[in-house]
Design brief:
Layout: E1 5-10, H1 25-28, H2 32-43, E2 47-52, H3 58-67, E3 71-74, H4 86-95, H5 105-112, H6 114-123, E4 131-134, E5 150-154, E6 168-169, H7 172-186, E7 190-194, E8 198-206, E9 212-213, E10 217-220, H8 234-238, H9 240-246, E11 249-252, H10 260-274, E12 280-288, E13 293-300, H11 309-316, H12 321-338
Parallel strand pairs: 1-2, 1-3
Antiparallel strand pairs: 4-7, 5-6, 5-7, 8-9, 8-10, 8-12, 10-11, 12-13
Helix pairs in contact: 2-12, 4-5
Length: about 350
């Protein structure tokens, strides 16, 4: 690929320093992943300019008009502090006719609305847990199909926000307690799902029209007696010390039933297309003891730091980190060329 001017859009707190020198591991934790992406793109010969964006679109317009980037590398997961608003930044880039990486605004909207995504996928006969939405200030009237255990999550937030060991509830009392936590402490509507005991699986998908499903990946939990419940809490996902202490690893899903891995990859592609996703996304699933893969959620523009599931699965599939980033860039340019 020829050298490109790449405007990287990210949260202001994630704008990386020019070098890791002089910083402790704790000090770089907020932006080390973004630093690695910038470094890899520059190593590939691209001119990269990080831009922190949170409350105003004007900085994007100013950079586009003055620097004239070839495309924007969109690493934003929120705008104005709201995950639901990230689609508006992608829409703004489309209105400005600026190519960008990652998912389009239609796909972002469908995937971020977890209840909407599940309703749409139910039409396509994708297996998923029974669920109910509980708006702020409302109580849940639990139907017979919503048998315990249940898991209580926020309706629209991602990154495991609000998910803890206490999210899995076994009694009416604990259900009410967790709903109040989501409503009052997180300030969000809740989604309550049938909890699927089983394996936590991820499938990365890359592409716009022609799709490539990466190897099925698994978040593996220790079998020790003091190990936490097998759910992807915020600590499980983002706290290295906690991961090491509890023996939490991630890697290729092994010992799957014959043909199951391929079926799961095909299912991930079906979900990707049904939710109008493009660029790249990660599909999260739970595999039951009966070998039924249940859809949990879709994550457009997932974490692509080198040590995270998506990049590791790509590497396992023969796509090294620089090649992965180049592919993401090319998909953004490819989509822009098809817009009339």
């Amino acid at each position: 690929m020829k050298s490109l001017r790449v405007l990287m859009l990210l949260h202001p707190d994630s704008v990386p320093a020019a070098s890791l020198k002089g910083y402790s591991e704790a000090e770089t934790r907020e932006w080390k992943g973004e630093y690695q992406i910038v470094r890899a793109l520059r190593k590939a010969g691209h001119d990269v300019r990080p831009l922190g964006v949170q409350h105003e679109l004007a900085p994007i317009r100013d950079e586009v008009e003055s620097w004239k980037p070839d495309l924007a590398f969109n690493l934003l997961e929120e705008f104005h502090g709201q995950t639901a608003y990230d689609q508006n930044v992608a829409s703004y880039l489309e209105l400005m006719r600026v190519p960008y990486t990652g998912c389009n605004p239609r796909g972002l909207m469908l995937a971020r609305g977890k209840d909407l995504a599940k309703k749409l996928l139910a039409y396509h006969k994708i297996p998923m847990p029974a669920f109910a939405v509980v708006p702020i200030g409302r109580k849940m009237r639990r139907s017979p199909r919503m048998a315990f255990p249940l898991i209580v999550k926020t309706l629209s937030e991602d990154g495991s926000l609000g998910i803890a060991q206490a999210s899995v509830v076994h009694t009416e009392e604990k259900l009410i307690e967790r709903l109040l936590f989501i409503h009052e402490r997180i300030g969000a509507a809740a989604i309550v799902e049938q909890f699927i005991e089983g394996r936590e699986l991820y499938v990365g998908v890359i592409g716009n029209d022609r799709l490539r499903a990466l190897p099925v990946w698994e978040l593996e939990f220790s079998e020790a007696a003091d190990a936490p419940s097998r759910i992807a809490t915020a600590k499980v996902k983002h706290d290295p010390d906690y991961q090491e202490r509890h023996g939490i690893l991630q890697g290729p899903a092994e010992n799957l039933a014959p043909g199951l891995g391929k079926r799961i990859q095909v299912m991930a592609k079906r979900i990707y297309r049904a939710l109008l996703l493009d660029g790249y996304a990660r599909i999260d699933l739970r595999l039951s003891a009966g070998n039924i893969p249940y859809f949990i959620e879709a994550n457009p523009n997932p974490d692509i730091r080198p040590n995270e599931e998506f990049a590791q699965a790509a590497l396992h599939d023969g796509l090294d980190y620089c090649a992965l980033l180049e592919r993401i860039l090319s998909l953004g340019l490819e989509r822009a060329r098809k817009i009339p």
